[in-house]
Amino acid sequence: MFDDMDEITTDYDERIRQAREDRDLSQSDLANELNEKASLIRKLERGDTLPSDEVQSKLEKFLEISLSGGAGADDEEWSGGSSTGEYTLGDVVKRKD
């Protein structure tokens, strides 16, 4: 079901903020350009929420950035899981400390 979805980058919040600042836009300005709420932009830039596919598309198009792309430079092939082949939530979730 989810095989065709692109994974969002772990630094999506930094990419959005940096691209917005590079264009000298406030969070409110960006929200107006995208026809979204400024509170959503704040939450995205803090990493509190993930963008919906629609919002992600708008951000990528307007800011000319990519928020997807799978594995980053510090990611490597994952080999987690138990000996039974079953995974727990702890095997697949990365904590953002």
Your description of this structure?
With 97 residues, this protein is mainly alpha-helical. The chain has a domain at 7-70: 434 Repressor (Amino-terminal Domain), CATH 1.10.260.40. Helices cover 44% and strands 0% of the residues. Helix 2 (27-34) crosses helix 3. The longest helix is centred in the N-terminal third of the chain and has 11 residues, at 12-22. The radius of gyration is 16 Å and the shape is elongated. The two termini are 30 Å apart. InterPro entries: Cro/C1-type_HTH, Lambda_DNA-bd_dom_sf. GO terms for molecular function: DNA binding.
In sequence order, what are the helices and strands, one letter per element? HHHHH
Sheet with the most strands, sense and barrel status? none
Distance between the termini: 30 Å
Number of DSSP-assigned strands: 0
What is the overall silhouette?
Answer: elongated
* CATH 4th-level superfamily of the domain at 7-70: lambda repressor-like DNA-binding domains
The radius of gyration over CA amounts to: 16 Å
Kindly state the percentage of residues in helix.
40-55%
Strand content: under 5%
Q: What would the CATH topology of the domain at 7-70 be?
A: 434 Repressor (Amino-terminal Domain)
Mean pLDDT reading: 80
Number of helices: 5
CATH architectural designation of the domain at 7-70: Orthogonal Bundle
Secondary structure class reads mainly alpha
* CATH class (first level) name of the domain at 7-70: Mainly Alpha
